[in-house]
Amino acid sequence: MAWYDVTRPLKEGIAVYPGDLVPAFRREDRETYRISELCISSHSGTHIDAPSHYIRDGASVDQIPPANLIGQCRVISVAGRGTLINPADIAGCTGERILFRTWYSGEEAFREDYPGLSPASAEALADAGVRCVGIDSPSVEPFSGDGTVHRILLGRGITVIEFLDLSQVGPGDYGMVALPLRLEGLDGSPCRVLLRDCGEV
Questions:
Q1: Annotated catalytic residue 53
Q2: pTM > 0.85
Q3: Is CATH 3.50.30.50 what the domain over 3-7+42-196 is classified as, yes or no?
Q4: Predicted pLDDT at 200
């Protein structure tokens, strides 16, 4: 039963959403040990969005139920190189945790034509009872979005994971563990996401 790390390495020079903080690290040797200073944002690399990212008085990342992020998930492969994932693309999607694998997995640079969900797709996923939605692009909604997709998902208690790398896994069912740092009161957190072949954790 193999494990797959579908987290993008959090390193200097990693692609960031325009306007976000560019990660920088400073390492310091102190004779008998080494310590590093990290300069990152709450949405650097593979990360989890909390409701408070878009919803005033929404839950912070440390308040997300762990059950949303641990358990069986389904990887859905989206064909084509479009920027919009429409309801027809996700017809028949079932499960509590859905990860979208698009052409963006493995991309290193930020591109404005990355794929994201349409508002109608977000509504369909919410109506289907999904608890967690992940995607391999920088954002769950297209670059032209106005936050509607985030507000639909986060407002319905759905946890959002962005900027995965699903290039090494195929479509199907996996066990998933995705945990943010316990950053009290914050709107998101970098995270580590692992998938397991067996479909259970």
A1: yes
A2: yes
A3: yes
A4: 64
